[in-house]
């Protein structure tokens, strides 16, 4: 053991938990739960719990592997420099072993306790986030978050498959909503984290194409997202609570996106920060409405 290893702080459970990107994981669990709830047919509570646990562990494993493979980038960015690997609490090799072990375990347990399709979709999600987004796209193209966003959009399909063992247009519509939501959400973050990405050499859209182009892209994707977000009601998949949440917050999201296009304070990017917060609220409200409506309907 080297002197550097002996002097390294001892990693805690909290440090390993932070490798799992718990905030991202919580959103993944929530959208996966929506897929479980809206799927037709019964599911045993233990099977449902197993499915959600596997989704959570798979998402956390992806986060740990992402941090391991991007440790050199994280060291250069203020927003990520305090993460366990850049701060020296956990080594890159330890994070890789942790992440790959959890990845294999999550897929194997999904196959064993749920079904083969749910396990295959979970494996695809991990592969897409780690192999496609992190390793193939992140350092090469400003479209990294557009193409890579498919991984974060998959949990509703996994939840649906856990119940039915099949796929249908309903979960794919939910996947499409999250997929279209991802660019305005992350590009608003990229606007006020632009200096970090430029310092690390990550070709996010504001770094490559400039802030003006990024703002126009945000508006374009928002204009596609809001009508898409109304489709579950139009197609009879959701009820009036969902319609209200989608219409009101969709309107607010569009308004905030337009405000970003006329942003003048480029030092703090207040409009981009407000849009980032609204995108989180928008997605949470839509999926919460789906869950509440289905639970109430089942209870009546």
TrEMBL record:
PROSITE patterns: UBIA (PS00943). The chain crosses the membrane at residues 24-43, 49-69, 89-111, 117-136, 157-180, 241-262, 274-292. HAMAP family: CyoE_CtaB. Keywords: Cell membrane, Heme biosynthesis, Membrane, Transferase, Transmembrane, Transmembrane helix. Its main location: membrane. Signal peptide: none annotated. PANTHER family: 4-HYDROXYBENZOATE SOLANESYLTRANSFERASE, PROTOHEME IX FARNESYLTRANSFERASE, MITOCHONDRIAL. This is Protoheme IX farnesyltransferase. Carbon 2 of the heme B porphyrin ring is defined according to the Fischer nomenclature. Pfam families: UbiA. It catalyses: heme b + (2E,6E)-farnesyl diphosphate + H2O = Fe(II)-heme o + diphosphate. Converts heme B (protoheme IX) to heme O by substitution of the vinyl group on carbon 2 of heme B porphyrin ring with a hydroxyethyl farnesyl side group. InterPro entries: Protohaem_IX_farnesylTrfase (IPR006369), UbiA_prenyltransferase (IPR000537), UbiA_prenylTrfase_CS (IPR030470), UbiA_sf (IPR044878). Belongs to the UbiA prenyltransferase family. Protoheme IX farnesyltransferase subfamily. It is a multi-pass membrane protein. It is an enzyme of class 2 (transferase). It comes from Rhizomicrobium electricum. Pathway: Porphyrin-containing compound metabolism; heme O biosynthesis; heme O from protoheme: step 1/1. It is found in: Cell membrane.
